[in-house]
Amino acid sequence: MAHFNICFYERAIRRERVFKDRSNPLEVLSEKELLEKLRFTRHAIQELAIDLEEHLRPETSRNFSISPLLHICLALRFFATGCFINTAADLIGEHKSTASRIIHRVACALSGRLPLYPTDVSTLNKVKADFFNIAGFPNVVGAIDGTHIRIQAPSTHEPLFLNRKGYHSINVQAICDAKLRVLNCVARWPGSTHDSRILVNSQIHDAFERGELQGVLLGDSGYPLKPWLLTPFLNPVSVPQARYNTAHTKTRNVIERCFGVLKRRFHCLHAELKMKPEKVCNIICACVVLHNMARDLALPDLEDDQICEEPTLEITEAGGEDGSGCYIRQMIVENIFSV
């Protein structure tokens, strides 16, 4: 009986809670180290924490809750390196499960801030002028392409995520301007989905079809030729058509460079993300928002890793040739590239 009382007494004693020491990276890292480890300056990180405070503020001040600033630092560390979550957690001295929840919260908060495609005339004219200065291609308001973000094989609908290159992925559609800023992003389709299907089911497709957006997009031969989406000639038969293709390639190349810069800055998009597809989509969108923020702040691009987009395997134009699209393309050839 005495033994029972002792055991009961020991269990009844409340264990003292032990809180890990949390370090603030902004207090211990130099400006150069912050750019290397978190990809942003001290001031930019502080401003981002203030901007997202409403979404990241803890519900209670009890139990040494984690501040929005440390939320941002931990998430940026994971986005920047693509390391294991427990490695990112060590940055502020937290457990892996806590770090996972923080990364998800920050990604959700950022993903809701994806850019809206510009519709005002002055902005579109600036975009057109920047594209024209590359190779003399007129009336371009964006370059479009898809890129695959590698993921761990999901437990459900696994075959849908297996892409033509043989690994599991999310197929991401993006449109960028000549300054490598993302204007539109769709990150919700499994890797087996064709680029043209993603486009046809996107809001940007409907906006162009309804005439709400003026100008043309440049895409590769994996996309259908339309009056607002110009693709290259598969087999140019004249010098003007060859000039058109050359200018098209040089101008459209910005989207390839955009993907390279994005994946170098946020290496998690180049590595394999070991999360559910839904969480991966939020992380992709969050990285796009942060990429635009870095472009706006004119932060230096990283040159340490050479990440190149794999060339497309499309050899035929998707969905055939649109009559109006053929006419617009031929008019550009005759009026611009025949001189």
From TrEMBL:
Sorted UniProt keywords: Cytoplasm, Hydrolase, Metal-binding, Nuclease, Nucleus
Residue spans crossing the bilayer: none
Recorded superkingdom: Eukaryota
InterPro entries (UniProt xref): HARBI1-like, HARBI1_animal, HARBI1_dom
Keyword Cytoplasm: yes
Main location: cytoplasm
Pfam families with a match to the protein in the record: DDE_Tnp_4
One GO MF term: metal ion binding
Residues covered by the DDE Tnp4 domain: 144-292
GO annotation, cellular component aspect: cytoplasm; nucleus
Compartments, record wording: Cytoplasm; Nucleus
Cofactor(s) it depends on: a divalent metal cation
Family that this chain belongs to: Belongs to the HARBI1 family.
Function: Transposase-derived protein that may have nuclease activity. Does not have transposase activity.
Name of the featured protein: Putative nuclease HARBI1
